[in-house]
Amino acid sequence: MVRSFYTAVNGMLTQAAKQDVISNNLANIDTVGFKGDGLYSRSFNDVYIQDYAKVVNGIPQKTLLGTLSLGQQVDETSTDFTGGEISSTGKSTDFAIEGRGFFTVYRDGVGGKNYYTRDGHFHVNIDGYLVDDSGDYVMGKNVNTGSDERIKVGNGKITSDSYGNISIDGAAAYKLDLVDFNDYNSLKKVGDNLYDGQNPIQGAQIVVQNQCLEKSNVNPLTAITNMMATMRNFESDQKVVKSIDETVGKTVNDVGKVG
C-alpha cells in the first residue's frame, strides 16, 4: 500500500516537472531563435516482492512473489535544435542562421566569457558596438587585423553576405564569429537565450541571412496538446494518492474499532 503511494507521488512529481518545461516552451513562442525543451523520464528499478510466511523447522523461508515497479522519475531535459521558420524583417542588424551553427557573443564583467546563441536580433548600442538584446557584444573577426573582437559599427550602415561577411558603409570590415559543435547535447542553457559550450568548431560553413530572424521552433498546438495530456496524467496520479490515503485511513480507523 505504501509502495503504491510512493509510485503515484513520483508520477505526480514527474508530471509537474514536465508541466514546467512545457509552460516555459509556450512562454517563449515569440522568442527569437528559441529552441524548445523536452523532459524525459525513466522507471525506477523494479523491486522484488518477498514473502516469509512459510516456516520450515521454525525458520521463515523466503518466497519470491514477483516484482513491483516504483514508478517514474525525471531523467533529463533535452533541447530540440530543429531550425525555426526564418522571416524577413528588413532591418540591417538582424541575422538568422540556416541549419546548424551559432552566433558568438561576449558577456562583459568579472570573468567575462563567450556564449553562443541562435538569436540574431542585434542592435547598435550607444558606443557604436553591435550587441544582443541583453547588451552582450557580438563577436567577429576584423578583416584588416585578423583579430577576434567586438564588432564596432559606429554610425555606419551594415550589409552582409550569406556567410556572415560584414561590410560597413560598403567597406569589408568583419566576419561574424560563427561556430558549430559536434555534440549539441553538451550545450547548456544559461538564460537570456544563450548557451554555454566547450570546444566550438571554428570556420564551419554556416549560412546566414541578413535582415531576417529565426522564429522559435516551438509548435503551439503540439505544446498545448502535451500540456493537456500532462495535466490529465497528473490528475490521475492525484486521484490514486487520494484513494490510497482514504483506504489507509479507513483501515486504521476500522482496526482501531476492532481493537
UniProtKB/TrEMBL annotation:
<feature type="domain" description="Flagellar hook protein FlgE/F/G-like D1">
    <location>
        <begin position="96"/>
        <end position="155"/>
    </location>
</feature>
<keyword id="KW-0282">Flagellum</keyword>
<dbReference type="InterPro" id="IPR010930">
    <property type="entry name" value="Flg_bb/hook_C_dom"/>
</dbReference>
<dbReference type="InterPro" id="IPR020013">
    <property type="entry name" value="Flagellar_FlgE/F/G"/>
</dbReference>
<comment type="similarity">
    <text>Belongs to the flagella basal body rod proteins family.</text>
</comment>
<dbReference type="InterPro" id="IPR037925">
    <property type="entry name" value="FlgE/F/G-like"/>
</dbReference>
<protein>
    <submittedName>
        <fullName>Flagellar hook-basal body complex protein</fullName>
    </submittedName>
</protein>
<dbReference type="InterPro" id="IPR019776">
    <property type="entry name" value="Flagellar_basal_body_rod_CS"/>
</dbReference>
<keyword id="KW-0966">Cell projection</keyword>
<dbReference type="Pfam" id="PF06429">
    <property type="entry name" value="Flg_bbr_C"/>
</dbReference>
<feature type="domain" description="Flagellar basal body rod protein N-terminal">
    <location>
        <begin position="5"/>
        <end position="35"/>
    </location>
</feature>
<keyword id="KW-0969">Cilium</keyword>
<dbReference type="Pfam" id="PF22692">
    <property type="entry name" value="LlgE_F_G_D1"/>
</dbReference>
<dbReference type="Pfam" id="PF00460">
    <property type="entry name" value="Flg_bb_rod"/>
</dbReference>
<dbReference type="InterPro" id="IPR053967">
    <property type="entry name" value="LlgE_F_G-like_D1"/>
</dbReference>
<feature type="domain" description="Flagellar basal-body/hook protein C-terminal">
    <location>
        <begin position="211"/>
        <end position="252"/>
    </location>
</feature>
<keyword id="KW-0975">Bacterial flagellum</keyword>
<dbReference type="InterPro" id="IPR001444">
    <property type="entry name" value="Flag_bb_rod_N"/>
</dbReference>
